[in-house]
UniProtKB/TrEMBL annotation, chain A:
Domain of life of the source: Eukaryota
UniProt keyword Lipid biosynthesis, yes or no: no
Membrane topology per record: Peripheral membrane protein
Gene (name only): ap3s1
Protein name: AP complex subunit sigma
Any one of the GO CC terms: cytoplasmic vesicle membrane
Source organism of this protein record: Cyclopterus lumpus (Lumpsucker)
Subcellular location: Cytoplasmic vesicle membrane; Golgi apparatus
Function: Part of the AP-3 complex, an adaptor-related complex which is not clathrin-associated. The complex is associated with the Golgi region as well as more peripheral structures. It facilitates the budding of vesicles from the Golgi membrane and may be directly involved in trafficking to lysosomes. In concert with the BLOC-1 complex, AP-3 is required to target cargos into vesicles assembled at cell bodies for delivery into neurites and nerve terminals.
PANTHER family: ADAPTOR COMPLEXES SMALL SUBUNIT FAMILY
SUPFAM superfamilies the UniProt entry points to: SNARE-like (SSF64356)
Automatic annotation (TrEMBL), chain B:
GO BP annotations listed: intracellular protein transport; vesicle-mediated transport
Subcellular location: Cytoplasmic vesicle membrane; Endomembrane system; Golgi apparatus
Pfam family, one: Adaptin_N
This protein's UniProt keywords: Cytoplasmic vesicle, Golgi apparatus, Membrane, Protein transport, Transport
Topology within the bilayer: Peripheral membrane protein
GO cellular component: AP-1 adaptor complex
PANTHER family: ADAPTIN, ALPHA/GAMMA/EPSILON (PTHR22780)
Protein species of origin: Cyclopterus lumpus
Name listed for the protein in its UniProt record: Adaptor related protein complex 1 subunit gamma 2
Residue ranges constituting the Clathrin/coatomer adaptor adaptin-like N-terminal domain according to the UniProt record: 23-579
InterPro entries the record matches: Adaptor_Complx_Large_Subunit, AP1_complex_gsu, ARM-like, ARM-type_fold, Clathrin/coatomer_adapt-like_N
Family: Belongs to the adaptor complexes large subunit family.
Amino acid sequence: MIKAILIFNNHGKPRLSKFYEHYSEDTEQQIIRETFHLVSKRDENVCNFLEGGMLIGGSDYRLIYRHYATLYFVFCVDSSESELGILDLIQVFVETLDKCFENVCELDLIFHVDKVHNILAEMVMGGMVLETNMNEIITQVDSQNKMEKSEQSP
Amino acid sequence: MSPSVPLQEMIRAIRSARTQCEERGVIQRECAAIRAQFRQADNGGRSHNLAKLLYVHMLGYPAHFGQMECVRMIASPRYSEKRVGYLGAMMLLDEKQDASLLITNSIKNDLAHSNQYVQSLALCTLACMGSAEMCRDLAPEIDRLLRASNSYIKKKAALCAVHIVRKVHELGELFAPAARSLLSEKNHGVLHGAVVLIIELCERNPETLERFRKTVPDLVQIMKGLVLSGYSPEHDVAGISDPFLQVSTDPWAHIDKSYLCSIIKKTKKTCTNIRDILSVVATNTDSTKTVGNAVLYETVLTVLDIKSESGLRVLAVNILGRFLLNNDRNIRYIAMTSLQKIVGTDHNAVQRHRGTIVDCLKDQDASVNRALELSLALVSASNIRSMMKELLLFLSSCPPELRAHAASGIFNAAERYAPSQRWHIDTMLHVLITAGGDVRDETVPNLIQLITNASELHCYTVHKLYRALLADISQQSLVQVACWCIGEYGDLLLRGDCQETEPVQVTEDDALDALETVLQSHMSSPATRGFALTATMKLSTRITDNVDRIRSIVSIYGSCIDVELQQRAVEYNALFKKYDHMRYAMKKSTCPQGELLLPPQQPANQVRYVDTKSRPGR
């Protein structure tokens, strides 16, 4: 199960935070800070897996992360998830964002956080992987956006 | 009441704030405006306000006043408002809040909505934050949706069911039949959801596990279909069908395979079909992409987990060995982790990859500490010499945080498999020279014990240690052992000839110079100085010409600031003056623990370490 999905930039500012287990608001912010602290210390040539911090559950959970330009994408998962599978999922997520936003960059995530949530909702549900086919995800997201737009125009 | 701004404007305003204080000010103004808007009757910008609030919440500011607005938005007939309302519910509400109960009815209505996207919103929210009561209320709806005709909804309903079962274990019974029938689905997304649901059901209830064990042959058939599928219209990529063993390149198929492997793992049942399928998967998966490697890895784990026969296990270990040669450090890391887990049970198979594992010691990244563990586990009587060469090489260049562990691992290995005493002593000395600062405290007495026991090697050892001492007096453990040896075997050192090493002329002055250098060096710790002082004292019985020099060294330390040293020096001085005849008792071999002096409260003229049998009467 995926416990949390976090996206933050090189300075630790959160760009997306999705928790699949309930924490208080303070704890959520602490988790983001702790995760940033753990992940930003990593060298470029070490592997992309590390143990979770104390707040997120300690050594039972792993943090699987990827660093793209100015953003860290971090998935906190337990032992039932395949690490390589999650690594691939992060790649699919970023590629999907790229397709939806056309050459996505951090600014797109900042100004369209709700859209990112919608895309993520098509990929991960309740902490479980839902869909990994990029075309399928994009089709669904496009239909939903079309529906929203048709409501707005009179 | 200031007018509220669109979401993008607010974000821009927050970003342009230069200090934390300014940011707080902007956010407070916005929140006040949002609160006011919430209190008003329905206006066009409701979804924007809630979206702004959610942004503010992500930055860490309080947003609980938006909870009721979420409830209202979810109940709205407009899709855009429902969407933001459900998102807000997932972020702001949890089972402890009362407001979450209020949305149960809305979710129920939306689950029966005609538009699949509205249904999917409801399913998503329920799977994310549904409490036990909500799950109990809505479980029959979910079961109905599992049998619906729309595969988009079915796959979401399956994962929602997983969440329900996690919250309320008894409801597993309700979903078991539907899960079973979903296994015959063609759509990969639904199949995946069904597999996850079955895994969850099996984990909760052993009876269900028994029931699903019977379906393993069907699962293997499905896997066979996935592995051997040449052409699948909706999942095809290149448009080419290959009648032979063409593994589907669709990522779904890979995930499915890995999940099916998990089921097989869980049921721990094996049969001929599984063996064939697993070996086919293992040999035919494209390992140039991450996703292919993910499947291979799951296959390997499955093989190792169920009671497979040895041929298949060797195949699995060989795949892991191949992973170790991969350029991708992540793959090397997980391969190393798995090998570590099985080195106890499949020792011989892992031994075959010893060369690769030892090569990984030269890596720079984090997998190197696993390579170290594995290498230490693979040391045996037959490979001890070559492995030790590699391990010592590693010790000289390894990262500082691993040195203590590497040193103690090397000592253990040396102790168990040393081919000869001289090799053992050489190895320990090598470690002390390379990493003396990182060894554990008991290494010094252990090494001294070892040297004491190797009586033929005393001459060789003392010469070697003397040379090491001349080269470097910064490694405390090495210096302590060297001082002890010089004190104990000083006569052998001064005699000059030694069969095992080239002879070197050491005069009494040379030996005393070396000890004095240690005594006076600022790098020596108090314990080290203690060793050196005692060794100097012991030399007084083994040399003939320079006893006066020793006496003067010892008396200098009678006024040393360090209490321990001062005490020793005073006692030794006493030995010189009043108990000169007892001094020769120091000739007897003592281990370092015997050198420890009395605790401070006892009088100084009871020198306890002297053997009572040899104490002459007064």
